[in-house]
C-alpha cells in the first residue's frame, strides 16, 4: 500500500525541513491540526520513508572545517566489484559528507568533502582516497562560497 501525500502532509514536511526541532504542539498549530492527528501523521510520514531522520545542520566554520572540496573520480574499470570496493571505502571516511554515482561526465563519482585546511585535504587525498583500489583519476574543485546552505528539498 502506498501512502499519498496531501496538502497537510506537505506542509508538515516543509516546516520540518526548516524547523526540525519544532515540537508537535507548535507543528499542529501551524498546520491546523490538533496534537494527536499531527503526531499520527508524523509517524506515518516516518514509517513510509518520507522522513528519514532528524539532524542538526552544523556550521562547518565554527567547527574549524574551513575547506569544502568537490571531487570527481573516475574508476579504472566499470565493474560492480570495483564500485563496491570504492563505495565501502568512502563510507568509512568522515570527511566525505556526500558521494553520488553520476552520469553525463567522464567521471563516475562526485564527492563532497569537508576538511580543516589544505594540509588535511592533502592527507585525505594522498593518504586515503587515492589508495582505494580501482581509483583512476581524481579532479578536485574547491568551494569558494556556498550560496545556498539549507539543503531543503522542494515539495510540490
Walk me through what this model shows.
The mean pLDDT is 95. α2 packs across α3. The chain has 2 domains: 7-47, Winged helix-like DNA-binding domain superfamily/Winged helix DNA-binding domain (Arc Repressor Mutant, subunit A, Orthogonal Bundle); 67-142, 2-Layer Sandwich (Alpha-Beta Plaits), CATH 3.30.70. The protein has helices at 7-18, 24-31, 35-47, 80-90, 118-127, and strands at residues 67-75, 96-101, 109-115, 135-142. The chain is elongated, with a radius of gyration of 20 Å. With 156 residues, the chain is of the alpha+beta class. The protein has a 4-stranded antiparallel beta sheet. This is Winged helix-turn-helix transcriptional regulator.
Summarize it:
Keywords: DNA-binding, Transcription, Transcription regulation. This protein is of the alpha+beta class and 156 residues long.
Strand portion: 15-25%
The rounded Rg comes to: 20 Å
How many strand elements?
4
In DSSP terms (H or I, runs of 4 or more residues), the helix count works out at 5
Count of domain modules: 2
User: What top-tier CATH class of the largest domain fits best?
Assistant: Alpha Beta
Separation of termini? Answer: 21 Å
> Widest sheet: strand order?
2-3-1-4
Largest sheet: 4 strands, antiparallel
- What is the CATH topology assignment of the largest domain? Alpha-Beta Plaits
Give me the CATH superfamily of the largest domain: Lrp/AsnC effector binding domain/regulation of amino acid metabolism (RAM) domain
User: How do the helices and strands follow one another from N- to C-terminus?
Assistant: HHHEHEEHE
In the CATH classification, which architecture of the largest domain applies? 2-Layer Sandwich
> Which secondary-structure class do the elements indicate?
alpha+beta
Q: What form results from the Cα inertia axes?
A: elongated
Average pLDDT level: 95
Q: Outline the low-pLDDT stretches.
A: none
